[in-house]
Each structure stands twice: as structure tokens, then as C-alpha cells.
Amino acid sequence: MIRIQNLYHMLAYAFQTLQGQSYRDIAVEEFDNTADLLAEILTRGVSLQVKRGLGREYVHLEEALSSPRGKIELSESLKTRSILRRQLVCSYDEFSTNTRMNGILKATIALLVRSDISKTRKKALSRLLPYFADVDGVDLSCEDWNIRFDRNNQTYRMLMNVCWLVVKGLLQTRANGSLHMMDFLDDQRMSRLYEKFVLEYYRCEHPELSVGAPYISWALDDGFDDMLPAMHTDITLARGSTVLIIDTKYYNNTTQQQFDKRSVHSDNLYQIFTYVKNKEAEFANTPKSHSVSGMLLYAKTDEEIQPDGVYQMSGNQISVRTLDLNRKFSEIAAQLDEIANAHFSKEVAGI
């Protein structure tokens, strides 16, 4: 289980834009479901974007015109007989708001308006649609969501992610064809958000640590790494000679069961152990020895038995913890702070 309000805090850390003044009072507002929360975020975000001005791009157009501009397409003009109408087919580039990202915003807003969110939020979203009058909507079911961002469209990053969450995680079709909302995002979407939240929390709240999600090199005898999978950590925290690698996990079941015995997911344990040993090997030729630990950080479920343990494996500490996302956010933050403090207390003390 996860409190709806905690989803806002997770999104706020994952996308720092939500830390701004325009969104701050969302933190104390109560929401009945995830859909209403995302609708409120999108309403405020799009309103801010409209005030700034909708993003524009050069869009290539080809059409029959009475007053020629750009390049005249003579063969196309003859083929379409536009000359008989005293027109010429011209191709030209226009600096337009009719962009792919604006199309995604328009289509997502229209989708939310047709769904069963609160009437107040439907009205607020509907008032935004006229600003997209010159924008063609997109087919969200075919959208691949592979979007490149640069300094000119950074303000759209959070908006596109919220649209993705709405389209991929929330909307389903009823038998009668109407749209309704699931109360929560599915495991795949929540897993990505959970990972991003924990990473950005440590990056924001623990500036004394080096925080990242780096790749780890395989410790190879001959350097031959063809066909080996990449080792990309979820979160790596470091200070001085102490390193903690955290692998976040968001599952329906935090443990696996074989016969009458429950245990940590074996694949998860093998993975974090591999990360730790290969990371440790990176420091083999450094003058100072390093302490490398690993942690599996599961989102707590309603199961009676939750994984919780600290193991010493081949000279390294591997721990398994759960993070309870159904508590007050201040308590969630305290859980994360305690993890950092426990692992880096010696570095802070200068030992």
C-alpha cells in the first residue's frame, strides 16, 4: 500500500520542478485517488507552460497556396491541378506550436476530461484546451515516448512524464467503452518512480554524499567483455572510502516461497552481490582500501513477513531492508536518512 499523498512527494523529488511555489500547496491537499493527483499536477503545469508560451518548433509543411512561399513544388502542382485553382503547391518550414509534445499534452488532457476524475478538475483541464486549438492531437496508443530534451524544452520534461504515467499507468477501458482510473500505478511504472525517488532524495537531502547511478565494470582477467550484460546501479552512495550500492525493488511480493520457507528473491541477491564484488575490484589498485556494501531496498507490502537482515558475504556487507511507503512522509524520510547515517557515520566522524 502507498498513501496517495506520498505519490506527490515521490514525484516532487523525481521531478524537481514540483518543488516550485506553484505546486507547493499540493503537498497538504487530500486526493481520493492517483488520477486526481496527476490531473491536478498536469493542470498547474500546463497553466504555467501556457503563461510562458507553448513550445514551438520548425514544422515542415506542404500545401497549395494562392500566394506562393518557400519552395514551389511544380510537379505536385501539376499532379493536383492546383494551378487551375490559381494556386501552387509550396513546401516551407513554419515556426509552429503544432509540435509532438504539445500534441501529447492536448491528447492527454482530452483523455483525462473523458475519465472519472472530479468535476472541478475536469473543468480546469477543459479551460486549457482552447490554447491548443492549432495543435493536432496524437494517437497516445501508438506513442513510443522516446522524447529528447534540450535546454529549449526542459520545462516539458516533467509534463511528459506525468502524461506517460497517466496514459500507461492509469487509464483502462471498461466493457461499455468508458474510461476509468485505477487507484494505483502498476508495478512497472511504480518501480521506475520508486527508483528515481530514492536516487533524487539522497541527491537533494544528503549533499555530503556523492550520489549517482553509475555503471560498474566487470572485473575481467583478459578484458574480453563481448556479450556481457551492462551493470547499471540504481543508486550508489559514496563518501571517502565508503560505498553503498542500493538496488530498489517494487514487487507485489517482497519474498519468494519454496515449499513452506520464505526467502529473499535469489536473483535480486545474486545481482547485488555481483555489483558489490565488481565495484570492490575497481579499487584493487588504489592506495587506500575501500569498504563496499550493498542493499536491497524493497517497498513494503501487506505481507506478514517482510525481508530484513544484514549478511556478511565474502568480506562485504549485504543488507535487505523494506521502506514503508504507507507512513507519513516525514517517517519515510527518516527511514532513508537512517540508512545513510548508519553506513556513513564512520566517514562523518573521520574514522
Automatic annotation (TrEMBL):
Domain of life: Bacteria
Keywords, ordered alphabetically: Endonuclease, Hydrolase, Nuclease
EC number assigned by the record: 3.1.21.-
GO molecular function: endonuclease activity; hydrolase activity
Transmembrane segments: none
Stated name of the protein: 5-methylcytosine-specific restriction endonuclease system specificity protein McrC
Pfam families: McrBC
